[in-house]
Amino acid sequence: MKLPNYRIGDPILPTESEAAMALASSHILASYLENREGSCTIKLMEDETNGKTIEIPAHVMQLLVEILVHTGMEHPVKIKPYTKELADYQAADILGITRHQVWELMNSGKIPYKIVRNVHRINYQDVIEYKKQDDARRDQIMDELVAESQALGLYD
């Protein structure tokens, strides 16, 4: 089967049959990856007897599952790569906040940055670390609210 030619970065809208195939594949692949770390080996079959074996990092396989899930829901899919150093709008996209809020985080020292040729650059890993800490902080607050509402008899 020859795939249509797409420009890299263009969203791809699946057909109904592609969506059904992707949904079934996502379930199989997700259950396979459930307790795995490291890399996975996949055999690509050209026909019943000929194929090639490839090794793929586990985190890339997780991305593949996500692509299959969205394709299975008939959503157009686009992959959005990031570099190791981000602009403020990219950090805002990852964090789900505005550029202004990213500036506030940088100015308060919560997210470190550097200036390269008059442009503020943020390390990708620093953004991810801040996101993990912020998510943990929000989870803790939610747990405290649930505990308080249970103590007051407002939550079953």
Order of helices and strands: HEEHEHHEEH
Radius of gyration, in angstroms, nearest whole number: 21 Å
Number of strands: 5
How would you describe the shape?
A: extended
Count, helices: 5
Helix content: 40-55%
- The average pLDDT score comes to 89
Query: How is the largest sheet built, in terms of strand order?
Result: 3-5-4
Strand content: 15-25%
Segments where pLDDT lies below 50 for 5+ residues? none
Distance between the termini: 54 Å
Alpha-beta content class: alpha+beta
Main β-sheet: number of strands, strand sense, barrel status?
Answer: 3 strands, antiparallel
Could you write a compact summary of the structure shown?
The protein has 156 residues and is of the alpha+beta class.
Structure notes:
The chain contains five helices and five strands; from the N terminus they run H-E-E-H-E-H-H-E-E-H. A hairpin with a 2-residue loop joins strand 4 and strand 5. The chain has a three-stranded antiparallel sheet with strand order 3-5-4. The protein is of the alpha+beta class and about 160 residues long.
Task: Itemize the secondary structure elements and their pairings.
Elements lengths: L15 H18 L5 E7 L5 E7 H15 L12 E2 L1 H8 L3 H9 L6 E3 L2 E5 H28 L5
Antiparallel strand pairs: 1-2, 3-5, 4-5
Helix pairs in contact: 1-2, 3-4
